[in-house]
Amino acid sequence: PWAALAGAGGGYGGSKSGSGGRRPAVTVILPVYNAECWLDECLKSLQEQDFQGSMELSVFNDASTDNSINIIEKWRVLLEAVGIQVCVGGHCSPQPRGVGFAKNRAVGQSSGSFLCFLDACTSSHSKENFLADAQEGDSNMNKCGISACLPGI
């Protein structure tokens, strides 16, 4: 499926779905490289979170060679069914470019007012208050392996 999105230079842009033009309150940034053994648990935890605001998942696949993309595409449907917008991007290079590159690209294709970083090997547990904490300037935003960034920081 990544090859179908390939553009010049072996890369491709993200594909968004679901928003209808509304900006989500929070974007969860998820860099992925050969993460098939963790993705189901990670994405299930996102689906089951209790945050009541609008949410987007921005995934960037960093040249995975395993089944990560198929798992992401399976979860795209499930996440959209519960109202989470999904944006998927990646590149087809033979070598990964690193987690920093993947995070930056996922941020670049995101549209949320706040960013929340999630690693594929981490699950997101109850997060009902994390946006309120972020808006109040809570400096201890590393809860359950997730970190949030305020706009402009």
Keyphrases for this structure?
alpha/beta; 153 residues; 6-stranded mixed sheet; disordered C terminus; 27% helix; globular
Give a nutshell description of this structure.
The chain has helices spanning 36-47, 68-81, 99-108, 130-135, and strands at residues 11-17, 26-32, 55-62, 84-91, 114-117, 147-149.
Can you describe this structure?
The protein is α/β, with parallel strands linked by helices and 153 residues long. Helix 1 packs parallel to helix 2 (68-81). The model is unreliable at 1-13 and 139-153 (pLDDT under 50). The termini are far apart. The chain has a six-stranded mixed beta sheet, with helices on both faces. The chain contains four helices and six strands.
The percent range for strand residues is 15-25%
Helicity, as a percent range: 25-40%
Q: State the end-to-end distance.
A: 35 Å
Q: Give a short account of the largest sheet.
A: 6 strands, mixed
Secondary-structure class: alpha/beta
Order of helices and strands: EEHEHEHEHE
Please tally the β strands and state the result.
Answer: 6
Rg: 15 Å
Q: How would you state the average pLDDT, rounded?
A: 78
Number of helices: 4
Tell the overall outline: globular
Which strand order does the major sheet show?
A: 1-4-3-2-5-6
**Segments where pLDDT lies below 50 for 5+ residues?**
1-13, 139-153
